[in-house]
Amino acid sequence: MAERTVIPFGPQHPVLPEPVHLDLVIEDERVIEAIPQIGFIHRGLEKLVQKLDYQSFVTVTERICGICAFGHSLGYSETIEVLMGVEVPPRAQVLRVIWHELSRVHSHLLWLGLLADGFGFENLFMQCWRLRERVLGIFEQTTGGRVILNACNVGGVNRDIANEDLRGIVLILDGMRDEYQVLLKTFLKDRSVANRLRGIGMLSKEKAREYGVAGPFARASGIAEDIRSFGYGGYGFLHAFEPILSDECDGYARCQVRAEEVVQSMDIVKELVEKIPDGALSAKVKGSPAAGSRAVSRLEQPRGECFYYAKGNGTKYLERFRIRTPSSDNLAGMVYTMQGCDLADVPMNILTIDPCVSCTER
Amino acid sequence: MGIQITGMALKNLLSRPATKLYPVEPQVYTSQTRGHVDNNIEACILCSICVRKCPATALAVDKEARTWTINPFSCVQCMTCVRVCPRDSLSMLPEYTPVASNMSTRTLVKPEEKPEEA
Amino acid sequence: MDPQVFIDIQLDELKGHIASYHERGWRLANLCGSSVDDKVELLYSFAQGPELENLRMLVDNGQKIPAVSPLYPNAFVFENEASELYGVVFEGGLVDYGGRFYSPSVPTPMNPASLPAQEYLASARAAADAEDEQEKQGAEEQGAEEQEEGEKEVPRG
User: Fold this and answer.
1) E strands within A89-158?
2) Residues of A with CB under 8 A from a CB of B
């Protein structure tokens, strides 16, 4: 039996966009076990809910993570709306979904770029991020911010997008789509990409169920779990929604699922722009959540299902607000896929799972 | 490797750069850009609703001294104050605040009201 | 909108419930603590497709809770989190980091029984009271101001 060594990996590592520390127990070049540790950027934002009133807290939820910023404000607002029984006007719901799907496009393009950078395909990385820049441009045009949108609020949205601007967005996305097809072809057809990613981090469907993984990680293992398919909120306006699946279960499948979801999100935006109803942007929210009231809600973030739980106590300060992010669900699966993989494949393995640590720690 | 994007790469070679040579080529703000908060102090009634609603506690109002103060280093440009202002005296301007060498606040003094014309 | 199902359970029923959800193939969506007076409330959420059910359980500080991570491995994050932030003691968990998962600078920062949490809550409540006071004042002044404005406007019109 070869000698066992423990190699510390992270929290600062060239392939890691975010700080997660792994103790890799290796035997020769093979990883036997990986022990994750987080807590480097724990900010106690869940505790802050007791100091900021429920309407101001939206600004804090947007700052949980720089990639899923809009998603968290949307999830928080939806939870409080359930808690207080607020009916959101349909136009606001559709606008929220448009922004959310655009965030998914930008998040996936960012991730695809990081992945390309991770396996040494610099040109692909640059092209992905160049396209992503256009989505950020749309955000700046419509909300005034590139990362923190400040568009969502309890009861509705803060700002409108005029119908002609919405059609402009579709034109921008159509232009992007042509260029993106080239990148998509590179990701799915290029031999060097396939050689690097095939067979990395295998997670069978049964194991994926057992480890309760979420998002593209689960869908790449053939689990058809997508909160969007239940038609909550603005997703109810879509005529059909089919989650993108793959049953190859490896890193390549995860790459494929995410790469195809970009096109799917562009289609969703296009369809919703045609269907967007006119009307109010925000419902009036009065009073405070009742004492002992509880609400749960789920939202499909770019990285998977995100779970929100809020508890009121009769004042305008919430008693408890909990965010269970997709990455904390995926940690167990990540540790599992790490067992038995080569040390050189560890960075690829982590990247294809895409843990968002600042979401996980809040 | 990368046969598929050769065309795109060649096109990039012959087209203008996607990046901007920033200080030489100035950044163009959109009309929506959230740069900094400004107060039309003449219209302001010093009601301090903005102070209470500000999630970053960046604002302060002194009714005695008739001043409205903003700490630009705390402000997160969330536009809450602009939305809640009952007199619409607050506005979000697209220009970012210039680089400063020390942390300072900005105070606006509301001029004394002229006596009502008879 | 997700179904809002909350089921109150006791500690001795927990194992049976969890085994039954596991058998039926439900997924553990969430496990989180929150504080109710001097007790800790644990919320277990199970999901399958669009269905979602939440189990609520009140436990005393320091009471030993059977861990769910042997059945649901993804719970090891939540269990370590609850034990570090609330001081809930889990028995038989998959991995016990012993306070080094988040490594909070003070022990159990979110449990109201801990001193820093008490100080935090006291300062938050004081701020809330002061603000309420201010708001009342502000509302009155605002009302007065509106009235004045109205009076001024009448002769102009």
Assistant:
1) 152-153, 156-157
2) 52, 55-57, 59-60, 63, 121, 123-124, 127, 130, 133, 140-145, 148, 150, 158-159, 179, 182-183, 185-186, 189-192
